[in-house]
Structures are given as structure tokens and as C-alpha cells.
TrEMBL record:
<dbReference type="InterPro" id="IPR000225">
    <property type="entry name" value="Armadillo"/>
</dbReference>
<dbReference type="InterPro" id="IPR011989">
    <property type="entry name" value="ARM-like"/>
</dbReference>
<keyword id="KW-0677">Repeat</keyword>
<protein>
    <recommendedName>
        <fullName>ARM repeat superfamily protein</fullName>
    </recommendedName>
</protein>
<dbReference type="InterPro" id="IPR016024">
    <property type="entry name" value="ARM-type_fold"/>
</dbReference>
């Protein structure tokens, strides 16, 4: 509760080796203590997402404490059978999206894996987190988008587009980022993403202004590739 929405408190916790202690407790403990430690990490990472200075100071790639935290978050995402804990760990990784280098596929891989989770809430959290890797605010968005596709993220993403409104919203946002940044991907064409965009419920777009901007951009990028690709095939056949 002290860390929630507070950059100064989050900084104090991390400066007193609190991060390493929290990672150890998440690893060793169970039940309420483990859950509260994980929630604390989630609040600290949310504060770091909103504050570049805290993010750079606390979650440097060569920091042992940061590595220990990320390792435990990934372990929870992969091994926990508690959707609440998985969701918290996924949110924390998403908050740290701008701290990971392009080659850090060990983080994107597990997120793509839970994109197809049987619990739709967990799958949606994964889509939100991956959206933070793929969005234009992330300097490495193009590389991350390529990684998401390489790890076979398109099929579970397409299933998410058939879910409830929240699933559709965050699935569409992630799908738009993939189309905008790597529209030339044949995986997107094979999945029928262009048709999926064109068939989106207008009421959903009206309720979520961000989709009004993203979907036309995504359709444009996919259409340009689709037309040029069809033209090349026609030339070959001729």
C-alpha cells in the first residue's frame, strides 16, 4: 500500500535492498506472504513505469536485484496455477517493458505462451503487457513485434479477438501494433488479420477512441503489403 502510486516510497524500498528481499520471499514463501510480496513488486514496477529516473536506477539490466525480481516474475508466470498471481507477475513485466533489450527473448517468450491461457483474464493481461513491448513508445517496438510473431503469438491473439469486450480491445491494440510495425509478415496475412480488422464491431471502436486511430493505420499497412504481395504472385504466374 505504501508503494502504490508513490515514486518516493518505491525508491526508498529499492534503495534499502528491499527489492532483493522481495524476490527471495516470492521464491521461498507461499500463501499470503508470497502474494503480498508479489503485489509490492507490482506496485514498484508500476511506479518505475511512470518515472524514468526510478526505472533507470532500479531496473538496470546489470543489476542483481533487478535480475532476481525478473527471474521470479517469469517463474510465477510459467509455473503458478493461481491466475491472480500470474496476472500480477505479467503486469509487473509489462511495466518494465522499456527496460529490456531486443535480445531479451526470455521475457517475451513466456508472455506469448500465456497469451493462449485457458483463463481469459490471464490471456488479456498478457496482451496488455505485450502491447507495452510493441507500442511506438518503446524504442525497440519493431524488434519486439518480430519476436512476438516468431514465438507464434498470432494464433492465440486471433482467438483473443473472439473473446469478451476487454479481450477484444487489448487484442486489437496489440494486433494493430504488429500490423503497423511488421505489416509485411506473412503470418499476419495467413491469419486473416486484415479481414478481422475490417469486421470489427463499430460500437467497440466508438467506445474506445484509441482504436479509431490505430485500426485505419493497421489496415493501411496490411493492405499495402497484401497488394504488393498479390502483384508479385500474379507476375510470377504470368
Amino acid at each position: 500500500m505504501l508503494a502504490r502510486g508513490s515514486v518516493p516510497n518505491s525508491r526508498r524500498i529499492t534503495e534499502t535492498k528491499g527489492l532483493l528481499c522481495l524476490a527471495k520471499l516470492v521464491e521461498m514463501e507461499e500463501g499470503e506472504l508470497q502474494s503480498n510480496c508479489l503485489m509490492t513488486i507490482t506496485e514498484i514496477t508500476a511506479a518505475a513505469e511512470s518515472n524514468a529516473d526510478l526505472r533507470r536506477a532500479t531496473f538496470k539490466t546489470n543489476s542483481p536485484a533487478a535480475k532476481a525480481v525478473v527471474d521470479q516474475l517469469l517463474r510465477v508466470i510459467k509455473d503458478s496455477d493461481d491466475p491472480r498471481l500470474q496476472g500480477a507477475a505479467i503486469r509487473a513485466i509489462g511495466s518494465l517493458a522499456r527496460t529490456f533489450p531486443a535480445r531479451e527473448t526470455r521475457v517475451v517468450g513466456p508472455l506469448v505462451e500465456v497469451l493462449g491461457h485457458r483463463n481469459q483474464d490471464v490471456a488479456v493481461e498478457a496482451a496488455v503487457a505485450l502491447g507495452k513491448f510493441a507500442c511506438p513508445d518503446n524504442f525497440l517496438c519493431v524488434e519486439h513485434c518480430k519476436t512476438i510473431i516468431e514465438f507464434r503469438g498470432v494464433p492465440p491473439l486471433m482467438r483473443l479477438l473472439r473473446g469478451n469486450e476487454r479481450a477484444q480491445l487489448h487484442g486489437l491494440i496489440l494486433a494493430c501494433y504488429l500490423a503497423i510495425h511488421v505489416g509485411k509478415s506473412e503470418d499476419l496475412e495467413r491469419a486473416g488479420l486484415l479481414n478481422a480488422f475490417e469486421g470489427v464491431d463499430r460500437a467497440l471502436i466508438a467506445q474506445h477512441p484509441e482504436l479509431k486511430e490505430l485500426i485505419p493505420q493497421a489496415i493501411y499497412h496490411l493492405s499495402v503489403f497484401h497488394q504488393s504481395h498479390s502483384g508479385m504472385l500474379a507476375q510470377r504466374q504470368f
